[in-house]
Amino acid sequence: MNKKFYITTPIYYPSANFHIGHCYTTIAADAIARFKRLEGFDVFFQTGTDEHGAKIAQKAAEAGVTPKEYVDKIIENAKDLWKSLDISYDYFIRTTDEQHIKGVQAIFKKLYDQGDIYKGEYKGLYCVPCESFWTNSQLVDGKCPDCGREVKEVTEEAYFFRLSKYQDKLIEIYDKNPNFILPITRKNELVNNFIKPGLEDLCVSRTSVKWGIPVDFDPKHVVYVWIDALSNYITSLGYPDENAELFKKYWPADIHLVGKEITRFHAIIWPALLMALGIDTPKQVFGHGWLIINGGKISKSLGNYKDPREYIDAYGIDAVRYFVLREVPFGADGTFSEEALINRTNADLVNNLGNLFNRTVSMAHKYFSGLVENKEVLEDYDNSLIDSVNNLDKVLNEKMDGLKINEALDELFDVFRKCNKYIDEATPWVLAKDETKQDRLETVLFNLLESIRVATVYLQAYLPDTAKKIFEVLNTDKTTYENNTFNKDNKYNLNEPIHLFDRIEVK
Ligand code: MSP
Fold first, then answer.
1. Ligand 1 pocket check: which of 46, 50, 81, 305 to mutate, most ligand atoms within 8 Å of Cβ?
2. Which residue's CA is the closest to the ligand 1 atom numbered 8?
3. Angle CA(427)–CA(432)–CA(437) in degrees, nearest 5?
4. For ligand 1, what atom is nearest to the CA of residue 257?
5. What pLDDT, on the 0 to 100 scale, is given for residue 313?
6. What superfamily would CATH give domain 338-493?
């Protein structure tokens, strides 16, 4: 097998513990990674943290610890959060990793040696106490937006990357690969607002920031934000060693999954840097929308959010995963609220899937002591259920290829809805009273169990914990994607029925 798939999340700033917005990207990436693994791809799923910069140094100083001590704690917390959400990442990169630091220095040096990075002067508005540069439009009433104090114009020596040189080549990439930036609206925004007005060279070093990767041939400079951050996607694979096993195997990335606000860095600066390095550009940058709380972006400074573990503890891992994957059309902005999460959980997980599973397994125990096989006493309407089960593979593939994750889940849960409708049509409790209908009754239960099994194979990508529980009760090892069609020859010897989800009472 040589089908590979490399997917990344952004590397998040560990300036404070993560919120549900960070979970959103990571859960989506996890579902895509799991889906690809099911399909047999050799997947490399990477996440991590972007640990340098003045902001983090300032936070650490406020907390009275070193920047490294400060981020170490947050990263421990983040890894624990990913564990509680069943995130199946293969690699967690930290920009403070030795391998990353060396890689970034080598990249910087190579670009400098070949003339793609040059020394110049950075002019900007500087707030001394905050050690931050601002642009005119960022100022609030002409003052520092963070502390409200006066800013002054300063000039500092800095290195620049010749981004402008790559303008035409970037347009060529977009034209050649219509799926390079998705959703398409983001591409149009980007081309109109950034490419067409003309790209300026990019400042890639600072002398005023201390917490960062030093430019090794000029150590009063540290590498500034984007070269440090973006390079994570290749330093983790062993770059600059182009013969490194992981690099050869997984690069270029198949999807960089990012929030909409950083799509432009990934779709402009990143491919330009890679072209300058003479290596392949990623296949796709997907910029999803934001989760909004009470009409505003979730923000650490506004404090309008809870620790995501509170939602997990109150409603369960898969209620949280299901909600963020299902509620919002992937790509658009959407609202996160506990009320909406409760409604979704009760409607789809409790009433639809949970009820179906419990009813079906309970009847199989009541009527056949949990031993069910196909007696092939079919009615016409059985075929419509079986057809939709067998069609799932095609439908889900199409949806997932376009990253229409919410629609994929809707299709999957539609099969569970159809199973519930099938129970209403077949009325097993009526069949049970008629001795001549026992084979029909067993066929009905078999059709349900086998439909649930096939659908649950896909469910593993989205709700792995629930899928595992279902397979345990079904007592089956037929959990793999290959030949995952309705198999009339399967036999069931079920374990006891369980409640997959508890109804959430609205307070
Ligand atoms: N460190 C940079 C990224 C560098 S990638 C080479 C950064 N970090 S961040 O901590 O601010 O994380 C931003 C990302 O977190 C967004 O792009 C998005 O993936 C996710 N989200 C943060 N808040 C979010 C919402 N409210 N809604 C959805 N996603 C959000 O930017």
1. 50
2. 12
3. 90
4. 19
5. 96
6. Isoleucyl-tRNA Synthetase; Domain 1 (1.10.730.10)
